[in-house]
Amino acid sequence: MSSTQEVGDIFGEGKGPAQAMLRSPTVLIVAIGLWGMNVFFFRLFRINYRYVLEYDLLQEEKQRKSQQTPENDKVALIGVGGNDNNEEKEKAQATSTSSSISSSHDEEEDPFFRNYSPTAAMATESSVKEGEAITWYKLVLYSFVLLLVLHYTTHLWMGQEHFDMGVIGAVALFYTLLLVSVLVPLASNRWLRRAFRIVIGRTCELLHPRFLYNKRLRPIPFIDVFYADAMCSLSKVFFDWGMLVHMALHYPDPVPPNLHNILIPSFCAAIPYLIRARQCLVMFFIGKQKADPKRVQHTANAIKYSTSIWPLCLSAYQRTVDPKQAEGLEGYLILLLT
After folding, report:
1. What is each CA distance from 173 to 3, 159, 230, 247, in whole angstroms?
2. Nearest alpha carbon to residue 298 among 212, 199, 217
């Protein structure tokens, strides 16, 4: 592929700055800005979104601690004195029951009602170090800065009066500047480094072996399902990253329309769907242990997500053949999608 012929000429139409390889950084920038807007509306409508996303993790931690401590010392010590202590036993049990109900009510009430204020969504951010709070205006402002950086690096790297090195160098320069903005230890980007650590941590959790090493299955928390679904929305970004590697390896020659050059980027695009399929399988086995009649729904979801790679590959292959042959493959594509 020459320096002026880009991936848009093979896998889709597109010329200049609007071609396909600039789609992935643009989508990521928009995603950052949209999440900042989400945080703003969560705060506006008094929704503690962090508590909602981490609710399963909090319950799991609470259950783990309860298994390590005695259930109730007072109830355990009563019953030694025989029938004379029945009245005291009943009072202690009633006190224990009322206290457990009130404590559980307080725990449930605290994040949503007792601290239910216009800043409830940011309440948990007050406990972090100074400068590390992730707020909506930081995310929106950062997305605008990244958009400007992408615009100027594109014109600097691809402009006829400058380097004229093509989109590969422009995208590589953008991602380099992005990493520099995150990793440089400045006080002004502490929140950015914290956000980067959160994203890396949640990504590693998607590969957590929840049912490989022992028979005790751990359910998939809602935040992992939410995160994997968000990654499915960014499948085109994964495809572009796979194609960017191919372009860099073949530069300055064209990327030949071979089978592996189609399957590898398509497989990259299918990675989020395969992760969701694995999550559904884990929940199926958990439902099987608990004799849950709805476990079949997890099986159907697993099949749906796992079959996503085939229409992705066929759709990419259609871009490499002549229009008449591509039209003949349309029926197979509809069948796979169905």
Report:
1. 16, 14, 26, 15
2. 217
Q: Which residues contact 81 (CB under 8 A, 6 or more apart)?
A: 88
| CB neighbour class for 75 (10 Å; exposed up to 12, middle 13-18, buried from 19) | middle
| Residues in Cβ contact with 4 at an 8 Å cutoff, skipping those fewer than 6 apart | 166
Average pLDDT score, the chain:
74
Beta carbons of 238 and 271 less than 8 angstroms apart = yes
Residue type, 90: E
199 within 8 A of 139, measured Cβ to Cβ: no
> In 233-242, which positions are buried (b, 16+ CB within 10 angstroms) versus exposed (e)?
ebbebbbbbb
Model confidence pLDDT, tens digit, residues 100-127: 434 443 333 334 333 334 344 444 555 5
In the DSSP assignment, the letter for residue 54 is T
Q: What is the pLDDT of residues 274-315, one digit of tens each?
A: 999 999 988 888 888 888 888 888 888 888 888 877 887 777
Q: pTM of the predicted model, to two decimals?
A: 0.73
- Find all residues with CB under 8 Å of 198, minimum gap 6, and list them: none
252 upstream amide cis, omega within 30 of 0 = yes
User: And the tokens for 40?
Assistant: 């703003």
CA dihedral sign of residues 172, 178, 182, 188: positive
Distance CA 212, CA 206 (A): 14
- What amino acid is encoded at 239 in this protein? F
